[in-house]
Specification:
heterotrimer, A mainly alpha (497), B mainly alpha (135), C mainly alpha (490), A: 497 residues, mainly alpha, 19 helices, 3 strands, 72% helix, globular, C: 490 residues, two-stranded antiparallel ribbon, 2 strands
């Protein structure tokens, strides 16, 4: 494959890092500060997008920064997979920045500069993960991301966020140090390299099946950001964070980094062939399937909207891992493309949850009956987002589910299809009632404040800064139904399908 | 027993220094009074000095000063030096330094003891500990 | 002429300056501090020159006063000491700059005489690192120890002298053991020059006297470096010392002792003796494993930030001892790299700690509430140091851990690798507990906005430099390994 050396991947990572001093220096001028954030976001997106044509031509952009040890360096490589993820993350950062202005200012949150700075740092780390050329670089950015998001999760600095922050770090940092680090070093010890290659780094016969299984499990559980059960409970805990954080980081960046890392390890370190040879895919697929079903069930029982979304995220993340673990071309395609499709759907849902909170202060689903009448745009977007996550047309999510289904049919474990179907029903069960009640139920509160009954049709949306982003993401979600080609092609190039 | 005794006698200097060292160590560990501990410390250091001094010594040898070594000798054959005739001076020279070190250590330690006494009006370690836990 | 005398300048410059300082403290008090700074500056320049020379032309052998070894004292500087020398002197100099205000605050009137002692202490450390003579090492070791006893006693008025006296007792035992070991080496070889001894020892490998010599030397050094369970003196001594002193003791004293251990292992006794003739290696690695875990667990029990950090030093000692005794190139690389890295990260942490002490007086956990708001820059440095201890890339702590764990895998010492990982986790808990305290305010006065009260700029800039150097040495650790450590080991 053609390789082009370019400094662009580094720039894409650095842009949001270099912006931090600007953010801090303009901390008393909020408009200037937000201006910097937008500038950085747009530049970042443009840099990422400028690499897109080359990647679509099947070329790889590489850059080696530091050689740490032979075979282990800090290096970037932009291929189809990384490009897909970077595109999603960098484009959504712009939208989220817009949204956070509306959210944070309306709620008069404190420490907005700190918030913006760590947000930028988190984005740097995310793009870093996307463009990592080897496991060491990936691990480096993975850890930076864990630490950069901690101040965002505990943003409120109260007792609840303290406890949640503790859980967040214990799971995310703990697992990565306890499992990924030794597994990575062991891989390096055995093979002397950590580069991602489609053939995997293990020579045939180098490892026995039990050893490989242990390593595989260490990676799958070690990247706890992917929310595989039983290492999932940090995600609901992290919902104490302000909504923009939940939206971008805990529906897109952080969790997808976890999934992306697992996908990278499965396809780049182990290699699809090796996994198929030892029949290891089914182990991962089983773990993922359990997570899918269990978390869908838990999601139904949650009344707090953000928590329901969090459990939905956990189950959707496992779809991705599930798809990749099928080790069939369509399964891989469906899984990886779900990174993008789910991102747009879920971020819309989170934006809606935040918009509802900003406009009405309501957090619980039971309080949201009839709210669709006052917030029609928000609820319409919520509906589209929900369709995307469930996987129904007209939304991009349809494609990923479709490919996943074909993937199960291609594999030798056809009964796995049942899991997908069941969980899709569950998804519908926990999302659609919210929309239905929002539009068609009568609000419980209405009788009490009769003064406003006449205004049942009055539209009282969240501020424009909140509404516009969720409309944008909802529209993109629909557009992806009609034009999924870019992402599909990127995945095909990235995985060499 | 009859086998061990010659070993002890032949290398009595080693046994002596070990005994002295143990006495010093015992005092440092078990005595409660800080000054007694210091004395133990000094015995400990001295035992090692003695050990060094004893390893330089040879029976029937003399101090390592060579007479007429500067070429004013009339009979050149007297200049032939047999190492066995002279005590090895190097360990002794080293111990001069070691003695300085041990004196300095002792001095610093005594100064510290004075400071402690000024602060607590006692040099008994358990009393100082009690004072510290009370505060 | 001057080119060839750099090794002497390294030691003489602080030594003479110490003398001048003690004279100045009588007649020209204002000159003490500048003298100290200038002398260390000269030494720093010399150490850089020495490092360059060694990298260019190989080992420098410098004969003190022209006496040829084995009779005379030889200073032998190869890649390993060159880098440790640079480390020692630069940390000593930066500390002196950073601690000017803190010395005035804590030591006050006696600060002029203090500088003399401080310089002597640095002389001792530099000498230990540069010398190629076993007995000379003992003398310099005692100079270092004596000055550190005096410095520690200048700290906490209630507990300082007592902590120092306990340190004296244990320090004397350690040094005496070492001296005893050297005596046995002398009996067997008749030489005190390291290289000379090394050339004579192989024929004597079977001798039990050599074994005794080795054990006594190691015991002495382990006591001095505070390897668990010989660590009991360290936490109190370091905690009750003045800020400026714990800032230099913590990063350097133990690390220089680790250097001495590695020097004895590689240069004097040789790998062949240690790992083929003796069956101690496995036991020592186990000891190091226990040291790591015990250090981290004991750190958990502390309620005072400074004391907690001192227990982390005990834990880190285990890293280096274990790495050195793995007996393979990777482990030794990790141990040597960790000398550099650990010195830097401990220094960064203690610099930050010193800033906090300067402002808050007490670093008991209760006092740390809202510290991120009060001292954001100091805490930023502290966070970087902490990440390095935990071992988060790209800070340097990660990379030495990398080599250590790989070395453990190669040796099959999975318990040691496990201990390294677990200690990372425990350190993460330790430091995030501090971060939590610092980040969350007291819930009752949530609305009290915390006013910023940072340490003076002269204390912040050194901290900033050192904490940035953690990342830089981390990213360039491969150059250190490839240009210095690996050539040295071959």
């Amino acid at each position: 494959m053609d390789q082009i050396i370019s400094i662009k991947p580094l720039l894409a990572v650095l842009v949001s890092l270099l912006i931090i001093p600007m953010l801090i220096s303009s901390s008393d001028k909020p408009n200037v500060r937000e201006g910097w954030t937008f500038t950085a976001g747009i530049i970042k997106f443009l840099i990422v997008a400028s690499m897109l044509p080359l990647v679509l031509q099947g070329k790889e952009i590489v850059l080696t920064l530091f050689e740490i040890a032979p075979g282990a360096s800090i290096a970037f490589k932009v291929d189809g997979l990384g490009m897909l993820f970077a595109l999603v993350a960098s484009s959504l950062w712009i939208v989220t920045s817009m949204y956070s202005i509306g959210y944070m200012r309306t709620l008069k949150e404190h420490g907005q500069t700190r918030f913006a700075s760590f947000f930028a740092l988190a984005l740097s780390a995310t793009i870093g993960v996307a463009f990592s050329a080897n496991l060491l670089t990936l691990y480096l950015f993975y850890e930076i991301l864990s630490l950069a998001t901690y101040p965002l999760v505990v943003h409120h600095q109260d007792k609840k966020s303290k406890i949640s922050g503790r859980r967040y770090l214990t799971f995310i940092l703990g697992t990565s140090v306890a499992f990924v680090l030794p597994a990575m070093l062991y891989c390096y010890h055995v093979t002397g390299t950590l580069e991602f290659t489609t053939a995997g780094i293990f020579a045939p016969g180098q490892m026995s099946k039990p050893a490989l299984t242990v390593l595989l499990l260490m990676f799958v559980f070690g990247f706890a950001k992917a929310g595989i059960m039983p290492f999932h409970s940090w995600l609901p805990a992290a919902m104490v964070a302000p909504t923009p954080v939940s939206a971008l980081l805990h529906a897109v960046a952080v969790v997808k980094v976890g999934v992306f890392s697992i996908v990278r390890v499965l396809t780049g370190i182990f290699g699809v062939d090796l996994l198929a040879q030892f029949n290891l895919g089914i182990i991962v697929a089983t773990i993922a399937a359990i997570t899918i079903l269990l978390s869908s069930c838990i999601a139904m029982s949650q009344d707090e909207l953000k928590r329901r979304l969090a459990f939905s995220t956990i189950s959707q993340l496992s779809y991705i891992i599930f798809g990749v673990a099928l080790l069939t071309p369509m399964g891989l395609l469906g899984g990886v493309i779900h990174i993008a499709m789910h991102a747009f759907g879920k971020i819309t849902l989170f934006f809606c949850a935040g918009a509802i909170y900003v406009a009405t202060g309501k957090k619980y689903i039971s309080q949201m009956k009839g709210l669709g009448k006052t917030m029609p745009i928000t609820f319409a977007a919520f509906f589209i987002g929900a369709l995307g996550v469930i996987g129904l047309p007209p939304s991009g999510g349809f494609y990923s589910k479709w490919y996943l289904l074909i993937g199960t049919l291609e594999s030798e474990y056809k009964f796995l299809m049942a899991i997908l179907l069941v969980s899709s029903f569950l998804n519908a069960f926990y999302f659609l009632p919210i929309v239905y009640q929002g539009f068609f139920s009568k609000s419980d509160e209405e009788p009490s404040n009769k003064a406003e009954t006449s205004g049942a049709t009055t539209i009282k949306e969240a501020p424009l800064w909140c509404v516009v982003p969720l409309v944008i993401t909802a529209i993109i979600s629909v557009v992806l139904f009609f034009y999924p080609d870019i992402f599909v092609n990127l995945v095909k190039i990235g995985l060499g399908l | 027993m009859s086998e061990i005794l010659p070993i002890i006698v032949a290398k009595y200097n080693y046994w002596l220094y070990i005994i002295l060292m143990m006495i010093g160590l015992y005092a440092m560990i078990s005595k409660n009074n800080l000054i007694k501990k210091l004395v133990g410390m000094n015995i400990f250091q001295t035992s090692i000095i003695l050990f060094y001094v004893s390893i330089g010594y040879k029976t029937n040898a003399t101090i390592p000063i060579i007479e007429n070594a500067h070429g004013d000798s009339h009979s050149p054959h007297e200049l032939i030096i047999h190492a066995a005739d002279y005590i090895n001076p190097l360990p002794h020279v080293l111990m001069l330094t070691a003695i300085v070190v041990s004196v300095a250590t002792f001095g610093v330690a005594l100064a510290l003891a004075v400071k402690i006494y000024q602060r607590y009006q006692t040099l008994e370690e358990d009393e100082i500990r009690m004072r510290l836990t009370e505060e | 002429m001057i080119n060839t005398n750099y090794p002497a300048i390294l030691v003489l410059s602080p030594l003479l300056a110490a003398l001048m300082c003690s004279i100045f403290s009588w007649c020209a008090k204002k000159l003490c501090y500048p003298t100290a700074i200038i002398s260390l500056g000269i030494s720093l320049y010399a150490s850089i020159e020495v490092l360059m020379q060694v990298m260019d032309t190989g080992t420098i052998q410098y004969r003190m006063a022209g006496w040829a070894p084995p009779m005379g004292i030889e200073y032998r500087i190869d890649l390993l000491n060159a880098i440790v020398l640079l480390l020692v002197i630069s940390i000593a100099l930066i500390n002196l700059v950073a601690s000017y205000q803190s010395v005035n605050q804590e030591i006050g009137k006696k600060s002029n005489t203090f500088y003399a002692i401080y310089l002597l202490f640095v002389t001792g450390l530099v000498g230990i690192t540069a010398t190629g003579d076993l007995f000379n090492l003992y003398v310099l070791l005692e100079i270092t120890s004596l000055t550190s006893y005096a410095q520690i006693a200048m700290g906490d008025k209630d507990r300082g002298p007592l902590a120092s006296l306990n340190y004296v007792f244990i320090g004397v035992i350690g040094a005496s053991f070492y001296l005893l070991g050297v005596g046995y080496i002398y009996i067997m070889t008749g030489s005190l020059n390291m290289v000379d001894v090394a050339s004579l020892l192989p024929s004597l490998h079977g001798s039990s006297a050599v074994l005794v010599a080795f054990i006594f030397c190691m015991l002495g050094i382990w006591i001095k470096m505070a390897l668990f369970p010989l660590h009991v003196w360290l936490p109190n001594a370091y905690t009750y010392a003045p800020t400026v002193v714990s800032r230099i003791l913590a990063p350097l004293m133990t690390k220089v002792m680790v250097y001495v251990m590695i020097r004895l292992m590689i240069t004097v006794f040789g790998f062949e003796y240690l790992f083929e003739k003796l069956n101690l290696a496995e036991a020592v690695v186990w000891l190091a494993t226990i040291a790591i875990l015990a250090g981290a667990i004991m750190a958990m029990a502390q309620k005072d930030l400074k004391k907690m950090l001192t227990y982390i030093i005990v834990c880190e000692i285990g890293y280096m001892v274990g790495g050195a005794w793995l007996g393979n190139e990777l482990g030794m690389t990790g141990a040597i790299l960790h000398i550099v890295n650990d010195a830097l990260m401990t220094f960064a942490l203690f610099l930050a700690l010193g800033n906090i002490v300067y402002k808050l007086k007490s670093v008991h956990f209760d006092n740390l509430k809202g510290l991120f708001g009060k001292m954001p820059w100091t805490m930023a440095g502290f966070v970087l140091g902490a990440f390095s201890i935990i071992g988060i890339p790209p800070t340097c702590g990660f990379f030495s851990k990398w080599y250590l764990i790989l070395g453990a895998f190669e040796k099959g010492a999975y318990h040691f690798a496990g201990a390294l990982i677990i200690s990372s986790l425990l350190c993460a808990v330790l430091f995030f507990r501090i971060f939590e305290i610092g980040f969350f305010n007291n819930e009752h006065d949530e609305h009290n906005t915390i006013t910023m009260s940072e340490a003076p700029v002269s204390m912040l800039i050194p901290l900033g430099l050192v904490s940035l150097s953690l990342i830089i040495t981390g990213l360039y650790s491969s150059s250190i390994v490839n240009k210095i450590i690996l050539p040295f080991l071959q």
